[in-house]
């Protein structure tokens, strides 16, 4: 399993390099009409990427040139600035690393730390902005500071409220995903139509949300789980767990499995239970998100340039390497 993990990490780095290289050549070729590389070099590199993606399907991303096939998103969706950047998060790959992260964090805090533990939904980030309780904007994360305007598209998603029960000015953020069943149906249909299929539900969700034609989005049965209230103190919300309940009361879809964990053994139990349930879930998950529950403490801990210090994603071992999650005492 150790060797498989290393192989996977080597492959992941190689895939990233190949995607960057190929997309760079594509931009020159398509946007600047100035190919800087012979076709056979491009083709050979493209085949390398295809082989790696075939060997490690979990490394396929929407940005990969192998996913740029018919019916995919158009590059010219209007851009949307995110005054509060949409951050990503740090990853850990073992319970030991998770324990180290929590202990480092707790060493800097003089009060007991409670965590809000959530499933990490395998979709793409979504921001929803409401004015006087009416949906006025939907956008993707993009690079975190500039996203794409998908307002017309999110209006077609059943779980996105068009209006709220109160006339609030509020922004909420979450994950847009395609349920596994919808993904299977979509790919069967595309197979039948001779259209290229999507590699995984996350790519299908990205390709469906980032459409210029919202009728295409409407046909794709997307769903959402919202997990962040922006400026929660404006609504008297003090913890992440309260934020989830607040959004649920407003009519947003929130994931029902979130718990507050006072200690790391509880987190361990949650990870074990959710790992066991993973295949039976109606949607894809690629890990567990552990967040400091107290929002004031989150602020105090702050963020690094790219990721918050107050949360971490525990990523499941890649599908290829089935590792046995042992019960590790958090002593
Ligand atoms: N995918 C998820 O289920 C998920 C989650 N449950 N909670 C968060 O918290 C945000 C808050 C600030 C930075 C991350 N992020 C999630 O997904 C992130 C968004 C961007 C990259 C990850 O997919």
Q: Brief description of this entry?
A:
The protein has 331 residues and is an alpha+beta fold. The chain is 37% helix and 19% strand.
Architecture overview:
- The chain has ten helices and eleven strands.
- The chain has helices at residues 2-31, 39-55, 95-107, 151-154, 180-192, 201-209, 214-218, 240-249, 264-277, 295-301; strands at 79-81, 90-92, 115-121, 124-131, 134-140, 146-148, 170-177, 223-229, 259-261, 285-292, 311-315.
- The strands form three sheets. The chain has a five-stranded mixed β-sheet with strand order 2-11-10-3-9. It has a four-stranded antiparallel β-sheet with strand order 5-4-7-8. Strands 1-6 form a two-stranded antiparallel ribbon.
- The two termini are 26 Å apart.
- Bound molecules: ligand 0OW.
- Ligand 0OW binds next to strand 3 and strand 8.
Which terms would index this structure?
331 residues, binds the ligand NC(=O)c1c(N)nc(OC2CCCC2)nc1O[C@@H]1CCC[C@@H]1O, five-stranded mixed beta sheet, disordered C terminus
The major pleated sheet works out as: 5 strands, mixed
CA distance, first residue to last residue:
26 Å
Strand content: 15-25%
- Low-confidence spans: pLDDT under 50, at least 5 residues? 69-74, 320-331
The distinct bound ligands, ions and cofactors come out as: the ligand NC(=O)c1c(N)nc(OC2CCCC2)nc1O[C@@H]1CCC[C@@H]1O
User: Helices and strands, in N-to-C order?
Assistant: HHEEHEEEEHEHHHEHEHEHE
Rg, please? 21 Å
| Helix amount | 25-40%
Overall 3D form: globular
Q: Averaged pLDDT, please?
A: 88
Count of DSSP-assigned helices: 10
The computed structural class is alpha+beta
Total number of β-strand segments?
11
């Amino acid at each position: 399993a150790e060797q498989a993990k290393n192989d996977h990490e080597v492959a992941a780095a190689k895939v990233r390099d190949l995607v960057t290289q190929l997309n760079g050549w594509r931009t020159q070729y398509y946007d600047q009409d100035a190919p800087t590389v012979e076709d056979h070099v491009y083709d050979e590199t493209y085949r390398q990427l295809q082989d790696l993606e075939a060997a490690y399907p979990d490394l396929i991303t929407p940005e990969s040139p192998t996913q740029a096939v018919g019916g995919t998103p158009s590059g010219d969706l209007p851009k949307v600035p995110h005054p509060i950047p949409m951050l990503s998060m740090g990853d850990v790959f073992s319970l030991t690393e998770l324990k180290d992260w929590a202990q480092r964090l707790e060493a800097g805090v003089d009060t007991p730390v409670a965590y809000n533990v959530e499933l990490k939904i395998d979709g793409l980030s979504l921001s929803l902005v409401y004015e006087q309780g009416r949906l006025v904007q939907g956008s993707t994360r993009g690079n975190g500071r500039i996203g794409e305007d998908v307002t017309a598209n999110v209006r077609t998603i059943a779980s996105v409220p068009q209006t709220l029960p109160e006339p609030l000015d509020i922004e909420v953020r979450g994950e847009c995903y395609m349920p596994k069943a919808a993904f299977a149906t979509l790919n069967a249909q595309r197979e039948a139509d001779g259209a290229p299929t999507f590699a995984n539900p996350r790519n299908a969700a990205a390709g469906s949300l980032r459409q210029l034609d919202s009728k295409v989005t409407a046909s794709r049965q997307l769903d959402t789980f919202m997990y962040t209230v922006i400026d929660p103190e404006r609504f008297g919300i003090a913890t992440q767990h309260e934020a989830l309940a607040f959004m649920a009361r407003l009519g947003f879809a929130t994931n029902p499995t979130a718990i507050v964990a006072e200690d790391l053994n509880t987190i361990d139990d949650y990870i074990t239970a959710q790992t066991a349930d993973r295949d039976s879930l109606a949607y894809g998950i690629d890990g567990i998100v552990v967040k400091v529950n107290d929002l004031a403490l989150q602020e105090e801990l702050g963020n690094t340039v790219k990721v918050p210090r107050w949360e971490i994603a525990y990523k499941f071992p890649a599908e290829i390497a089935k590792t046995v999650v042992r019960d590790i005492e958090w002593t």
